[in-house]
């Protein structure tokens, strides 16, 4: 589908048979048309930027259309409205981050796997800042539902398989792996939200400290942890 055909008008002078100047007639020059796929990508890019800056509620279809140089019906034609555009943007960001984390888990040593997972999240925050802002702005990690909570659960599932093998090898109950996976991924995610704005210390140092806490906590793990306070239930 070709959209929004635009033309530029200029004039060209004609001459009569005896060489004298004649009348001027307009000459129309066509600009390159934007295909439906190109327009869709343009709207997604604009929506992504606005959602990151203003959030879902603060962004309007009118503003998206205006920045794209199209009418509101064009946005509705491609996405059915703001909700549809937002859903596609969020889905892309979630898949991008999840693929990055999953693809990073290549090392054999558990501690290096932790480092790779931490770096994958921090790399995403650094390279796709707008995307991460969208994921955490409207669905804080503290919520039990929503895009970011769902994403954390998906990443934890990947980590859970690794922890389950390690737990079994060390004589721990592998059924507890999901709990520890959620704890570890949640720790990294919350730290990532904080680092999103402060950007200090440097990424490698943040990763090192995250792994330091996680690894040495796991290294001294008790098979049957006990509570030392007065509360027991």
Automatic annotation (TrEMBL):
Record carries keyword Protein biosynthesis: no
Annotated spans, Disordered: 1-36
Keywords of the record: DNA-binding, Transcription, Transcription regulation
Pfam families in alphabetical order: TetR_C_46, TetR_N
DNA-binding region positions on the chain: 60-79
InterPro entries: DesT_TetR_C (IPR054129), DNA-bd_HTH_TetR-type_CS (IPR023772), Homeodomain-like_sf (IPR009057), HTH-type_TetR-like_transc_reg (IPR050109), HTH_TetR (IPR001647), Tet_transcr_reg_TetR-rel_C_sf (IPR036271)
Protein name: TetR/AcrR family transcriptional regulator
